User: What shape does this take?
Amino acid sequence: MSRFQKLLNYLNPYRWQVAQGIFALFIVNALSVYIPLLIREGIDRLRTSFTSDYLTQLAIAIVALTTVMWVVRMISRITIFRVGRQVQATLKQNIFEHLLQLEPGYFATTTVGDLVNRFTSDVENITRLVGFAVLSTANIIFAYALTLPAMLFIDVKLTLMALAVYPLMLVAVQLFSGQLRDQQVVVQESISDLSELIQEDMSGIALIKIYAQEENERRAFRKKNQELFTANLKLAESRNTIFPIIQGLASISLLVLLWQGGLAIANQEISVGGFLSLVIYAQNLIFPTALLGFTITAYQRGEVSIDRVEAILFNQPKIADAPTALHLDAGLQGQITARDFSYTYPGAETPALKHLNFTIKAGETIAIVGPIGSGKSTLANALPRLVEIPENSLFIDGYDLTNLSLADLRSAIAYVPQESFLFSTSIENNIRYGDPLANQTVVETAAKLGQIHWEVLNFPQQYDTIVGERGITLSGGQRQRTALARALLLNSPILILDDALSSVDNQTATAILQNLSKTGQKRTTIFITHQLSAAATADRILVMEKGEIVQAGTHQDLISQEGLYQWLCGQNQLEELLH
Ligand code: ADP
Assistant: This one.
């Protein structure tokens, strides 16, 4: 599909509004050709059959038609700019909804800054294309198609002379408009650079003081501030150059017209009225001609932006429901099986997981331990299909995971990742994130299970306390327990904790895990941990090394075997002694 077709696609839902706007422009241009003809006629009649009645009528007609022209012009602008804004809003919504469907891996390879840029500058460029560019293209076509014949009809020679410099106007604007847009981008980037620096420095103010880096930061700010100043100055210079150039060229055209027109009147080759209407027509064409230059730039920018936005939209979600995806009416029990499951990250050379085979019974509590990089998180991410897993490798209750609907699969799994991300809203809303309709009692029960309830009661507004930038800062352990409460609220048959209690002390972590297996419903729990005293409480422990499960069994079994687990326990005891 060509870019032009894509552009039409964006406009298609609003085609009637666009047609209305363009029709209004046609009327405007027709009137702007007709009114000077009236003036011409009036002036030429002054010399022959002058009556004051006729003059009054003519004046009224001209004022009335001019008023109509301006009202219709206003309507056409409002209509088409509204279409631009509507396309903008729809496009932003579509991009956002599309991004929500993409897998986390996509965001690991795309920077947030780039995405934000596509949301703002690129969408803005497309809006300009469908609003401003469509409006001005129609305007230019109508202006020339209607005005030029009228001018040529009055006097061919004078018309050509008057318009001779107009192509120069177009070239000048074309040269400058690209530069203007580039400079605008630089200004915008400088502004965002500066705001980023302010934001970062103000949040990291303690660090700046501890390391006594005020002087350095002051210099960094001055540099960025100076960059913004220079960029603003350059933009102003370009703006202040282009408009006088247009005016200068327009004046040259007017001079030529006055000079040659004067001679023609003297030689009685043209009437005074005809000459005056030529002057008006020539003036009327200045704006559309200059605009053509800006419009060409808007098309060029818009096309690049269409490509950049379409690049997001054409990125199909890699992890999606299979066409035959099963929807389960009854919930899942929570039995998990791996059959010769291997996984390699896209672009990686060695597999992160190699030939895993295991079965976890429904309701069992399993600890996964092993050195950093042994594949524990990858396994945790594979179960809710946050990474793209092969078919026939992982099963829940005997169903191949890749064959279950994603919504059913994910609603069966409560997952607490390593980084406990909290939204900038109240504690209560954070805990009920998975079920926004959950009532206060349900929230509190989950908070008690996650052992955060009593601390929440000590917060200034208790459960209504806002966390994050706009509210209080929670300690690492508090964040983790809030994230745990959020997962527990869902009562899912499977709970996965990926080192989710690393900032909670060993005793509390162990107490929480023991509590979980005693109270509440029976759920399959998989927890990845470095705290071996917590792992010891699990029904079974899987020990991973370099993507493989090297040992499996209860704490008692494993501690008496020679192997990685014994070694890890030795290290752990050593660490605890040292603390
Ligand atoms: P663990 O949780 O045991 O520390 P991980 O599952 O995070 O281990 O990592 C297992 C291996 O996969 C490591 O070698 C790591 O470098 C690699 N890995 C992890 N995440 C990615 C990723 N997004 N892309 C490529 N390789 C990754």
